[in-house]
Amino acid sequence: MFTFAVKFAFAPFMKRPVELSISQFVNSFLYPGSNPLSEMWFVATLFIIMLTYPLLKYMITSPFKIGILLLGCIALNLFFPADIELL
């Protein structure tokens, strides 16, 4: 959010300025490689990893849940559209 604010404040001097909109802000997190904040891709990735950590911690408590987690990851890998570069 700090980088977004700085890039907006100095937009006339930026090579890739940002616009002040909700869609631009959301796209900055979902598609970090193809927006004006592409140099900050790792921040969005770390944020998503931290958000999913409690779910992962819950899922590794039993072999059944681990199996469901693995099947879900395999399904996501196999059926996610190839032309969408999400995260």
Plain-language structure description:
The structure is a single chain. The chain is mainly alpha-helical and 87 residues long. The chain has four helices and no strands. It has helices at 2-9, 22-30, 41-59, 63-79. The longest helix is centred in the middle third of the chain and has 19 residues, at 41-59. The chain is elongated and about 55 Å long.
Summarize the structure.
The longest helix is centred in the middle third of the chain and has 19 residues, at 41-59.
Helix content: 55-70%
For the termini, the CA-CA separation is 17 Å
Structural class: mainly alpha
Unreliable stretches: none
Average pLDDT metric: 80
| Helix-strand pattern | HHHH
Calculate Rg over CA atoms: 17 Å
Major sheet details: none
Strand content: under 5%
Total beta-strand segments: 0
Tell me the overall shape.
elongated
Q: Tally the helices.
A: 4
Which key phrases capture this entry?
single chain; 87 residues; mainly alpha
Which helices and strands occur, and which strands form pairs?
Layout: H1 2-9, H2 22-30, H3 41-59, H4 63-79
